[in-house]
Prior knowledge:
Structural class: alpha+beta
Oligomer: single chain
Strand order of the largest sheet: 1-2-3-4-5
Distance between the termini: 44 Å
Number of domains: 2
CATH class of the largest domain: Mainly Alpha
Number of helices: 7
CATH architecture of the largest domain: Orthogonal Bundle
Strand content: 15-25%
Largest sheet: 5 strands, antiparallel
Number of strands: 8
CATH superfamily of the largest domain: Winged helix-like DNA-binding domain superfamily/Winged helix DNA-binding domain
Shape: extended
Amino acid sequence: xxxxxxxxxxxxxxxxxxxxxxxxxxxxxxxxxxxxxxxxxxxxxxxxxxxxxxxxxxxxxxxxxxxxxxxxxxxxxxxxxxxxxxxxxxxxxxxxxxxxxxxxxxxxxxxxxxxxxxxxxxxxxxxxxxxxxxxxxxxxxxxxxxxxxxxxxxxxxxxxxxxxxxxxxxxxxxxxxxx
Length: 179
């Protein structure tokens, strides 16, 4: 949750941190709310629907109540970073082929390498990354290691991603074949 501080009109408690516009906001007699922004603290006037960064950048808020609800439901930064890491793992076509192969059930590294078109070394490296993020799990049988999707959430994520790409036609401006 973003730390915020209500500052009564006329207060100079944050004066050393403020630029000229922010001093004017405090002196104007309006109540303001200060909260950390991207590049410093932000001021939100209770009399307007506008958030202003101390550096002078403004962002207009159209539906303040809805923005507040969405922000309160936003996962913690660590959870967002972990989720972004999982999507990053899925962004590599080789790792994605490995994961899609595991939709059919558990496979050993050798078989995964053949199915994915990767070398055994690259497959092992991909599986190590996927295992570290709890996307896949391993079962050992003697000297063999069999990998499988870690849980139903991973399977659902892959199924949804494949279904999405099957029924949509993406535009890829970054690819040369779209010219």
